[in-house]
Amino acid sequence: MDRKPYSRIVVKLGTSTLTSGTSRISPPRVLDLVRQMAELHQAECELVLVSSGAMAAGRERLEFPELPKDIPAKQMLAAVGQPRLMALYEKLFELYGIFVAQVLITRADLNNRRRYLNSRNTLEALLSQRVIPVVNENDTVTSEEIRVGDNDNLSALVANLIEADLLVLLTDQPGFYRADPRRDPSAEFVQEITGGIIPDEIWQAAGDKAGRLGTGGMFTKLQAADLARRSGAAVVIAAGGEKDIITQLAAGEALGTRFTPISTALEGRKRYILTASDAPGTVDVDPGAARALNKGGSLLPVGISAVRGDFERGDTVRVCDDAGAEIARGLVNYRAEDLKRIRGRQSAEIEAILGFFYGDEVIHRNNMVLL
User: Fold this and answer.
1) DSSP assignment string, 125-194
2) Which of 18, 262, 352, 368 is most deeply buried (CB count within 10 A of its CB)?
């Protein structure tokens, strides 16, 4: 069944889509994708483009050198390829009278509250001026510690950042299969994934292998879809080579594999909390506390059974149940060392134990996102 058209869309183009499955960036393919985005732009749709392909463009420019598979070599290729890729986008969008802007983001930009807001404000300002932001990770300088690591998850973070209502992940496959269709012709196609939790068998079917040219794979697309749908966005994984795929998906056509949103649009603070996938610590809670959280309650020290990691007041931490499953994420009111001293105790005892008091709650419900 067809669905409503969307008004704010993040489009993620994978390397396999930009190269049409070859080892070179395909200008005709890129032009066709740009044409579709231009049509939506002219119809007053707001677009953000998250583009892979920098390393492929760099390899092509350097005539496919033999290089080690380490981070510096990849950063070097990205440094060579990124301006070439941006020049191509600028030239092709200009055919339709559309301006583009390059936006480079790292995980650190999204983990720091001030930089998170700055990134959001920049993207909002560009959209308000009818400029299409072309987003990529700042691959040339990022280290493993601050990398998002793949553009699938980066696109989900961007969708969360700008409150997009649709995230389109374009790849070389028609969508998600329960097995690799290149190896198993009888693999079952999954048209839609709904519900609060993606089943284990779906995660297992996704595997963890990246494509031949890109850094992502179906597993990272599944991760991205799960994050974006928790931010209130619909997500579609579809084939980038299918005719008019972007415009059809924007119009609500039932193509590819669709993930239905499992929450309404979150307030800004909770969107920020949701981006912190590398939260520095974990708080384990007992079954009673887990039930209270699921009913909308705050986390109190009496329900905490263990504190893991090193974190400060105001950091984002994970909240796990007694089986080790993450059930929530939130901004903590007490640092790890202090929390170890008050865990299992009543809130009325906090000041007597610590000598200070930041509130009854370890994590207030307003600063928490349930997972």
Assistant:
1) HHHHTT-EEEEEE-TTT--GGG---SHHHHHHHHHHHHT-SEEEEEESSSSEESS-TTT-TTPPEE-EE-
2) 18
